[in-house]
């Protein structure tokens, strides 16, 4: 049934159109259909032409260093498995001694070396619903089982294990990155109980994924990190000098003005990005650094460069811990100590590796039934092969139990007991605030960074400018002289509709065009927020402004 208005005996729909000064003739239907088809044809043609003839706005390219001597310094990267590893280690030590001497000449910021001890650490999470559906009645799932060990200054420790052994879980628990679950055990920093608020200020965490803002340079990335994480009592000149020192330490000084770029398409290579990730943590002047698989996804040459950077960090006196999955011979020989986990989060070896991994090899070869390592074989690969669950079943033993009953375990326990007692007169590190700087400083640094990001995003700025110009032409032509006619309420409706539509379309465009930048910066925000660089409010205010 058609509803008829009492006004002029028209339908309600007709009166609405008349009130807005819109035509009511039937041919307007076909005009609307024609306009839709015309727009569809126009945009599809333009889209096809753009795909066919337009090139990407940025070409994917790698950064080539001007220093031609770099290849001479990286001969270690081409090393084969049958090379004399003892000679390699001596050569590497000589290179690192030169680097360290240069560091001492210039002077690093002072920091307090720390020792981390952890004893009988257990970690539980809620039982997954999938496992409960299979009939498992326990309410908690244990991921780490009585894990004990020591991390010391100037010692590079490797956390190794097969997939699902709990390497990253253990490192996250020790670093305080786990926000859920239940942690049990004794964790001490230089003999004092660990306080997470204080520990977060003296610890660095190098994530496996290299997350950085693409629009800033290498030097700016380090400067923003140092400006937000170094204490207030350090002058601006000292911070700049420290940034210079760290860039030299990780061998990024020749790339200081290079934009970070997007991973896999432009800017820094994968290996250079990994060194930048390490440098971002080093400029915070941490006492201990956790690294989650720093060589993952890198070829032999790139992995050698990264490990040389890691060794440089260790030789400054810091405590460095790395998770490593199936390392090569050269990478494995870079480590000083090992903490080996099996599936289920249980320790099966802890302690010194020795030259050419001789200490670890002697331990496993001393277990009855374990086959000896072949000459020239990778000790890390052999270690993981002989400690599998299938090998345990074949030998009829549990490597975790064997380790608990070994002299190696007792030596580690004695070392933990010795280092768990603080030095006489020493006091635990304490900070009165959660962050190094107040909200105003955090806001200023974040605002400067956001300004650089948007200034160096020409695609985003051009799209916004172009769309605004086109939208103004369209709305201006459609509503030309509409504001001059104000005789009826329909005239006012048209003016208000024009203002509403213009604001709505521009707002939607701005919100949609900024999404690519926001999506990248969101990941950067999560990393920087976890590193205690700033709180949420200053960052949100800077982003909105």
From TrEMBL:
<comment type="function">
    <text>May be a general defense protein.</text>
</comment>
<feature type="transmembrane region" description="Helical">
    <location>
        <begin position="462"/>
        <end position="480"/>
    </location>
</feature>
<keyword id="KW-0067">ATP-binding</keyword>
<dbReference type="GO" id="GO:0016887">
    <property type="term" value="F:ATP hydrolysis activity"/>
</dbReference>
<dbReference type="InterPro" id="IPR027417">
    <property type="entry name" value="P-loop_NTPase"/>
</dbReference>
<dbReference type="InterPro" id="IPR013525">
    <property type="entry name" value="ABC2_TM"/>
</dbReference>
<dbReference type="InterPro" id="IPR013581">
    <property type="entry name" value="PDR_assoc"/>
</dbReference>
<keyword id="KW-0813">Transport</keyword>
<dbReference type="Pfam" id="PF00005">
    <property type="entry name" value="ABC_tran"/>
</dbReference>
<feature type="transmembrane region" description="Helical">
    <location>
        <begin position="492"/>
        <end position="512"/>
    </location>
</feature>
<dbReference type="Pfam" id="PF01061">
    <property type="entry name" value="ABC2_membrane"/>
</dbReference>
<comment type="similarity">
    <text>Belongs to the ABC transporter superfamily. ABCG family. PDR (TC 3.A.1.205) subfamily.</text>
</comment>
<dbReference type="GO" id="GO:0140359">
    <property type="term" value="F:ABC-type transporter activity"/>
</dbReference>
<dbReference type="GO" id="GO:0016020">
    <property type="term" value="C:membrane"/>
</dbReference>
<keyword id="KW-0472">Membrane</keyword>
<feature type="domain" description="ABC transporter">
    <location>
        <begin position="116"/>
        <end position="368"/>
    </location>
</feature>
<dbReference type="Pfam" id="PF08370">
    <property type="entry name" value="PDR_assoc"/>
</dbReference>
<keyword id="KW-1133">Transmembrane helix</keyword>
<dbReference type="InterPro" id="IPR034003">
    <property type="entry name" value="ABCG_PDR_2"/>
</dbReference>
<dbReference type="InterPro" id="IPR003439">
    <property type="entry name" value="ABC_transporter-like_ATP-bd"/>
</dbReference>
<keyword id="KW-0547">Nucleotide-binding</keyword>
<keyword id="KW-0812">Transmembrane</keyword>
<keyword id="KW-0677">Repeat</keyword>
<dbReference type="InterPro" id="IPR003593">
    <property type="entry name" value="AAA+_ATPase"/>
</dbReference>
<feature type="transmembrane region" description="Helical">
    <location>
        <begin position="27"/>
        <end position="54"/>
    </location>
</feature>
<dbReference type="GO" id="GO:0005524">
    <property type="term" value="F:ATP binding"/>
</dbReference>
<protein>
    <recommendedName>
        <fullName>ABC transporter domain-containing protein</fullName>
    </recommendedName>
</protein>
